[in-house]
Every structure is written in C-alpha cells, then in structure tokens.
Amino acid sequence: MKKVLHISKYYYPFTGGIEQVARDAVRALQGKFEQKVLCFEHDNSENQNVVDDIEVIRCKCQCKIFSQSISLELACKFKELLKTFKPDYIVFHYPNPFVASILLRNIPKETKLILYWHLDITRQKILGKIFHPQNLALLKRADRIIATSPNYIEGSKYLSRFRSKCKVIPNCIDENRLAKTPKAVELAEKIKQENKGKTICLSVGRLVPYKGYSYLIKSAQKLNENFVFYIIGDGEKRKSLVSQSKNCPTVKFLGKLADDELKAYYLAADIFCFPSITKNEAFGIALAEAMYFGLPSITYTIPGSGVNYVSLNGETGLEVPNRDVEAYANAIKELSADKDKRKQFGEKAFNRVIEKFLFNQFKKSFIDLIAE
Do 60 and 196 have their domain in common? Predict the structure, then answer.
C-alpha cells in the first residue's frame, strides 16, 4: 500500500475551512493508502493524536512572525517522517510559508508533491513579496496543483502561470452533519412563528474583515422592520459590528451555534446573505451549505474568487457590485418580493450542490488525481 503524508497548518478538532478540506482529503483516501498527518499544535485542549483512525502528529509552535507559525519540532518531525514513513506522496496545504521552506529543502526527488493551493497571500503585502520566490519554487516543484474553483486559477497571479498542472476539485459539504433532525425542524418552525410576516435573512461565518459584515449591516440599515437579519458566527470584529448595528434592531448576532440550532436557521430562512468582499474568501462552504438547504443567495462580485463559481448570478441567486450596499439592499428587497424567484433559485441552488459539492464527487476527483 502506497503512503501519503498530509501537511496542514492545523487539523481537526481545530475548525477552519482549510482544516476541514484537509480532513476531507484524508477521508477520501482512507483504506486505499497508508496515511499520516503533520501539523502545528493549536490551543484547544482537545488535541487528538488519532483522528478517523489516522495518526496526527502535532508540533508545538515556538513563535509567530507576521501571523506565520514557526516550529523547530515540525522541521525535525518532517525530516524524521521522510526517513521512517517514506511517503510516496505529500499533500501540502498552502498557505503555510514556514513549512514550505522546510519542504522545498528536504523533499526527495522521487516523492510526488500534491500542492493544495487554497488561496494567494493578498492581505499581507510585505509577506507576499518576501515569499514570492518561494511560491514560484513550490509551484515548479509540484507534480499536481489543486485549486478549489476555475475562477481562482484565472484570478491568481501564481496559478494562472501553471495551468497545465492545475486540477479543480471543489470543496465539499458534509451531508451527514447537515441532515435534518426533529429538533432542528421543530426549532425552525418556532423561528418562523417568531418572525411571522417578516423576511428572514441569514448569514453564517467568522466575524472577520474580509467577510464583509460591516457592509451587510449598512444594507440592513436601509431596510424596514419587515426584515430580520440573523448572523451566526464569532470572531475578532464582533464587538465593533455589534456597536455598528446598535441603532438597527433588525440585526441579531447569535454567536456560534450547535449543529441542530444552525440547521434550524437554515431551514427557517428565506434568503442567505453572503457579503464577503475579497479573495480571502476563496470558496464559501457556508454558502454551499445554505444552497443545500434550498436557499437563494446574495453575493458580491469578487474577481478571482470561487464565491461567484459556487453561486451563479441569475441562476442560484443574485450577485451585485462589490461593496455596493445600496445594490445589496435592493437585491434583498427583490428576492423578498418574489416568492417564485426565491423558490426557483433555491431549487437550482440545491441541484448545483448535489451535482458538484458533495463528498462523493470530492472523493472520486481526489482519488483520480492521486492515481494519475
């Protein structure tokens, strides 16, 4: 049985978009390859050394430079695994500049490198310039490069130069986690009754700048009390966003919810608002989840992002110019006033997820790529 070493910044039970994809990649190959995972240790006391019957090697971080983790232990463990585990393939989840430098210096020529390119470093301009030569070296060394959407390949100054190596494997949602439960259905009915006569707008995501919640609040402020906005999630911007919305009682912050509660709001909602504004939003798992529940969505145009690949303008939802809060508010009013359009978009949204964004499609694509 051939061997695969997966390298991710963090790993389950740490929750994040890249970490979920890393776990999906491991699950996709389970039973067909011998696998190990190498990552940084995170602050969660629930660190597990075995996840889904796969060994996870977590290494302590000595410090962070420009938010990038540095770990001498990880460098040593990687070199040790090359000698003892002898992987045939390395699946490396980028961005992770420190580990990239260790990998480039030590990976054997015969080991195939599968580079999972989640996103360009765009926010940290200085860091992007520093690691530009390393990024090119990494892309040249890669045998295959995975991108999560064709939009990201075309919009990336790096991936567009290596199209022949790229394969699109969209992220996937977890059908089992999103399965309806009696508790979720009951709670959804309660939410609907509490908001009878109102249009329920839902948004799910971390409260960080690129998610665009400040713009969603500005749009909500342009609408009357016949709309209610539920925002699920937590993050560094919560305090400032709550302050921004203090004179807008239709905006309600719910924090992080348990799965049954989250599903209840998906089931109760009329419209899904996904106001992300930059390429840091490379795909949009929460957007795909909402579409799975048959919700029409409203997004901003984000050049080079997979968001506008996940939800298609005029087919599964509406797309408006980036940061145009007036246009966003008008799109909400348009969908609120047209139940038939909401239903039409919602049905197509569900079908798109079933066709493209489920684990079985992800698994087949990933196995096919490894087998090439």
Answer: no
* Cβ–Cβ < 8 Å for 274, 247: no
- Any idea what the CATH number is for the domain that residue 40 is in? 3.40.50.2000
Exposed/middle/buried for residue 243 (C-beta within 10 Å: 0-12, 13-18, 19+)? exposed
pLDDT, tens only, 281-334: 999 999 999 999 999 999 999 999 999 999 999 999 999 999 999 999 999 999
- Rounded distance, CA 330 to CA 322, Å? 14
pLDDT in tens, 62-75: 777 666 777 899 99
Number of domains in the chain: 2
Distance separating alpha carbons of residues 257 and 239, to the nearest angstrom? 18
Give residue 279's domain range. 175-356
Extract the tokens encoding 209. 């700048």
Asked if residues 104 and 133 have their Cβ atoms less than 8 Å apart, the reply is no
Rounded to an integer, what distance in angstroms lies between the CA atom of residue 89 and that of residue 143? 10
φ/ψ of residue 65, rounded to 5: -120, 120
Whole-model pTM over 0.85: yes
- CA 136 vs. chain centroid, Å, equals 24
Strand (E) or helix (H) holding 29? helix 17-29
C-alpha–C-alpha distance, residues 170 and 173, integer Å: 10
Give the E-state strand segments of 60-210 in sequence order: 63-65, 68-70, 89-94, 112-117, 144-147, 166-168, 199-204
Considering the domain architecture, whether residues 165 and 213 belong to the same structural domain is answered as no
Domain check: are 223 and 330 in the same one?
Answer: yes
- Pairing type for strands 199-204 and 166-168 reads unpaired
CB 207 within 8 A of CB 232: no
The span from the CA of 344 to the CA of 266, in Å, is: 17
Q: Do residues 208 and 149 share a domain?
A: no
Verify that 335 and 367 share a domain, yes or no. no
How many Å apart are CA 47 and CA 138, to the nearest integer?
30
Whether residues 167 and 179 share a domain: the answer is no
